[in-house]
Input
Amino acid sequence: MFIKKSISCSFAIIVLLTFSFFAHSCGKDDVSGPSNLNLTITIQGADENNPYGDGSGIITCIAIAENAVRYAYKFDGGDLQESTNGTIDYTFFNEGTNTHSVLVFAYSSSGESISKTQSVRVYQSDTSDTLIFSDEFNTDGSVDSAKWLFETNPPNNGSWWNGEKQHYTDRLDNAFVSNGTLKIVAKKEQYTFAGSTKNYTSARLNSKFNFIYGRIDVRAKLPTGGGTWPAIWTLGSNINTVGWPACGEIDIMEHWGHDPTKVSSAIHTVACSGVNNCPDVRVGEKIVSDYAMAFHIYSMEWSSQAIKFYLDNQLLYTYSPPTKTDDNWPFTKNQFIILNVAMGGDWFNIDPNFDQSAMEIDYVRVYQ
Output
């Protein structure tokens, strides 16, 4: 009796396993994992005389794998950087000739992945490593008044431009330093200033420092919530004499909470600005899915010939009109830095459930 039962159970198990294997093998959800991952790395300007490149430190990586729908890279063990098509540009800033590691992942539609690591030797001739301004935000409390000015007076009849819905204040409620970072906090609250009442508050900090040519690095985490509009940007110091956009505006980072995974850069000039609805204003758009959970380095490199935008040292866009005029290249005079979080705008609404959120900044550094 025991033997018969055992045989019967064994037969049932075999039948069940056979059916399960057949169903899995023939099912529509069966997706092969990625395979045959190849990585090609090209060093900018490399030739027989300059095997490690032209000194820019820029490389182009192209990854191809079978059954892969997306890719991601790590350079020298840094943060993971996404690439939908497997191609990415990256800049190394270590001065001299150095060996770097490039790790690439290829993912299938089911989430399976394979990876490959490759070394590359790159020459970097100019790292712009003279630090001429910085704020590391290491002292808890109020913002350093020797370095920053709170801009609180609304210039547009009690309001700010672009249809923004907030008042900027100089209160600790809206801007303060704690645990090594600056917090700029946008809040839902009724606030009256200069005879105008708004339902939101935030802060806008202008640097007292201004400069011409160099590189800005800002390491930041961005706020969440529909209606938030954080920005890291610069304006011409001559704005009060020539006006906007003749002074020139460089938007190193802009983000909109209603379209949360996108960050963008922008250039505003007389030739092309938000006022004349120029389609080329917004440049260097990038998908950043962990914008609020992880710090990223937003950078701008400005020379007499070009303005380059970077995200985590990845080159996003270069602005360099071939023929430079006052209208398309006003960037021959000093600019100052602005950090702010606006609420709302002419073309998007604020989530009615928004309460408060902050842009958190680890440091601001300017090199020349």
About this structure: The chain is about 10% helix and 50% strand. The first strand starts at residue 35 and ends at 43.
